[in-house]
Amino acid sequence: MYKEYKKEILTTLSKFNYTILDNDFIQNKLKRIQLIEESYNFFLPDSYKCFLLLCDNVFFKDMILFQHGKSERVLEELYCLTGNDSLIEQLETYLFRIPEALIPIGMCPNGDQICIGVKDEMFGKILLWGHENELEAWKMIGGINSEADINSYYENIELISASFLDFLRLLKLNDALNEENYDYGDIWLHEDLLKD
Fold first, then answer.
1. Is residue 187 part of a domain?
2. Domain total of the chain
3. What is the pTM assigned to this prediction?
4. What pLDDT does residue 36 have?
5. According to the model, what pLDDT value does residue 156 have?
6. Which residues in the chain show pLDDT less than 50?
7. Which CATH number fits the domain that encloses residue 121?
8. In this structure, is residue 9 part of a structural domain?
9. Per the domain annotation, does 114 fall within a domain?
């Protein structure tokens, strides 16, 4: 079922120093995916299911960029079934903050979320959810009617790509950032901190 996606996912992630471990937990992962879909009442696109079956804890060691409009954004992490920021933890964190047609699948350094569509016309699309323009914040300051519904609020959501595989194709290493060109700055310590 996932063979058509597996090769491209493995090839793409191997460019970013991410090692995929072959393990025997596929059946357990399939059960967890099914439980997530049933519990939250949505279906995950097959390409993203394949990613979840192949990967554990995708926190990138190198700076990974993706093109978004005319600018490049940094991708810090993609959520998996296991690890520090598991998909389930993120689903719970963003429940009622992101429209139910979307779920968070990754994070940019400033807290913006990479989302995938799991329902209706959003299904399979990859979108950027901006946390600084969140509906609840606007409600609190009176900028939006308190009766506004999260499922009709898309003011802070922008399309990145038509599919998960298209999104993976957008990813690239930041070649401009390397040890020689990066300025770490100076660190000054008070004399008292240097004493034994």
1. no
2. 1
3. 0.80
4. 95
5. 85
6. 178-190, 192-194, 196
7. 3.40.1580
8. yes
9. yes
